[in-house]
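Comment thread on ticket #2218

A.B. wrote:
> Attaching the input chain for the structure job we discussed in standup.
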Amino acid sequence: MRREISVAETTVLAGQNPAGPTDLVAEVEALTERIARVREAIGQVIFGQPEVVDQTLITLLAGGHVLLVGVPGLGKTKLVETLGTVLGLAEKRVQFTPDLMPADIIGSEVLDESAEGRRSFRFIKGPIFCQLLMADEINRASPRTQSALLQAMQEIKVAVGGIEHPLPRPFHVLATQNPIEQEGTYPLPEAQLDRFLLEIEVSYPALEAERTMLLATTGATMARPQRAMSAEELLAAQATIRRMPVGESVVEAILTLVRAGRPETSPLEAVKRHLAWGPGPRAAQALMLACRARAVLDGRFAPSVDDVIALAPAVLRHRMALNFAARADGVQLADVIGRLTGLLE
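C.D. wrote:
> Ran it. Output below, let me know if you need it in another format.
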């Protein structure tokens, strides 16, 4: 079951009209080379976090939003700033604080008066009108302000005063979050968490990577990120990802994993006993897109079941919740996800 799927033996989802196999192979090869240049450019600035960088690129290639979770000082903010430069995206940054209001993000209407004395409302766009929005320390804002991002993240537009305003494309939210046990933070609403394609845990770098970072960032000069892609190329890459064929075994693995994570339909006693709720259909969609993007990063033309297993933690950990019994027993979500991926091995 755990083998790579060739283009010739894959099935394509209903409703898609992919290019011919030869054209698609050429597109994927060109995209793989372009992504290699992007990774190299990021690697000049970001040290010791290859898995974090790859998963963030997977999210952007899949057209989604990403939540970076880790204690302060691990380079989360630096990574987002670097991506904006390397990918050629119009970037804006919002520092989330407890007194931040929804209008501070989305924008607001002001009353203008013309020289003739006529009055009319004019909409002033907020920082959300960009291609790459950095929501720094998102869990330091109140739930009301956090929820202001929901429509934008899902529908790529905002509504103010009954009028809809489309956002630029591509549009991605890259949010950073401190662990909720840090002082002055609020847990994110479940509905907002589900909008993030991946939740990426940022851990401490290895010794040699930290040594390299220390020497590279404390000298008289520092490396600056260089542009390696454009917004138009990123949109084209996202379209290519969606046209990639997916083997039936991968589709079945995704469905098995997601449905086994729901207490109502799971064959695992641990899931029924320890989970309050499991992942919804959006988790399956996220896995499908992320697996395709991961295949491109590895230079493959179709995803495999290994991609499903590798991405399961990042896709599922923010879409599942332990119940009180699990917390009392010291059960961790990683343990439950490990049991789920064991069904695919």
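A.B. wrote:
> Thanks. Noting for the ticket: Residues 1-18 have pLDDT under 50 and may be disordered.
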